[in-house]
Amino acid sequence: MCFVVTKSFLLTCCLPILLMGMRYYFSRKVILHYLDCALHTDMSDIEQYYMKPPGSCFWVAVLDGNVVGIVAARGNEEDNTVELRRMSVDSNYRGKGIAKALGRKVLEFAVLNNYSSVVLGTTAVKMAAHKLYESLGFKHVGVVEHYALPGMTHSLLERMFFQLRYHRYRLQLREE
C-alpha cells in the first residue's frame, strides 16, 4: 500500500522500522511515566499506604540477604474485599515459587482479617502471571480494553502506539 501511494521502495522498507521505533518510544515513555508516578505515590511511602491503614499490609521476600519480591494488600471496608497490589518478583528469581508464596500470604491475611474476597487487576501480558493467579484460585472476571495507566497523557500518538488490556480477577473466600 505504501509503495502504491509513494512509488518509493526506500520509504516502503523504512516505514515498518519507523512504526516499530515509534511503538518502542511511546511504550517506553508510558512505562517510565507510570513508574515515576508509582515512585511518587504509594511506593514512596509504603508505611503510610500499606502499613498504617487498617486492613492493609506489605510483605517483602528476601533470599540470601537480597530483596527478591514484594506484594501489598489494601483492604476496602465498604465491600469487605482486600486488593492484592504491587506483586513483583525480580526477573532473576522467577519460576521459583516466590510469587505463589507472596500470593498465599495475601490470601492468609484476607482470611485472618475476615475479608469475603480478594481482588486484583493486572496489565501483565505474560501468560505466566495469569496462570499464577488462576493457580491461587482466582477467577478471571473481566477485561478493560485500552486501559490507561496512571501517568499517561492520552495523546493520539500514545493511544495509537501503546494499548493495554486490564484484566480483573476475584477470589471469593466466603459469602457475605
Automatic annotation (TrEMBL):
Source domain of life = Eukaryota
Q: Which Pfam family, an example, fits this chain?
A: Acetyltransf_1
EC number(s): the record gives 2.3.1.17
Domain N-acetyltransferase residue range list = 20-163
One Gene Ontology term, aspect cellular component: mitochondrial membrane
Q: What is its main location?
A: cytoplasm
GO MF terms held by the record = L-aspartate N-acetyltransferase activity
Report which reactions are catalysed by this protein: L-aspartate + acetyl-CoA = N-acetyl-L-aspartate + CoA + H(+)
Please give the InterPro entries that the UniProt record associates with this protein.
Answer: Acyl_CoA_acyltransferase, GNAT_dom, NAT_camello-type
Keywords for this protein: Acyltransferase, Cytoplasm, Endoplasmic reticulum, Membrane, Microsome, Mitochondrion, Transferase, Transmembrane, Transmembrane helix
Membrane disposition? Single-pass membrane protein
**Where is it located?**
Cytoplasm; Endoplasmic reticulum membrane; Microsome membrane; Mitochondrion membrane
Known function: Catalyzes the synthesis of N-acetylaspartate acid (NAA) from L-aspartate and acetyl-CoA. Promotes dopamine uptake by regulating TNF-alpha expression. Attenuates methamphetamine-induced inhibition of dopamine uptake.
The text of the family note is: Belongs to the NAT8 family.
- The molecule here is called N-acetylaspartate synthetase
Its source organism is Nothoprocta ornata
